[in-house]
Amino acid sequence: ASKAEHAAVLLWSTTTWRQLQALPYHALTVTQMAFSPNAKFLLAVSRDRTWSLWGRKLSTPESPEPLFSLCAHTGKDTAIHSRIIWSCDWSSESKYFVTSSRDKKVIVWGPCMLEESEEPVFPLEIKPCSSILDVGDSATAVAFCPSLCSDSSYLLAAGLECGRILLYRWRPGQEGATGSDWISCGGTDTFQSHTLAVKRLRWRPRAGQAGLENGEMDGLSDTERKLEEKSSWVQLASASADHSVKIFNVNKRAL
Question: Family, per the entry (predicted)?
Answer without folding.
Answer: Belongs to the WD repeat ELP2 family.
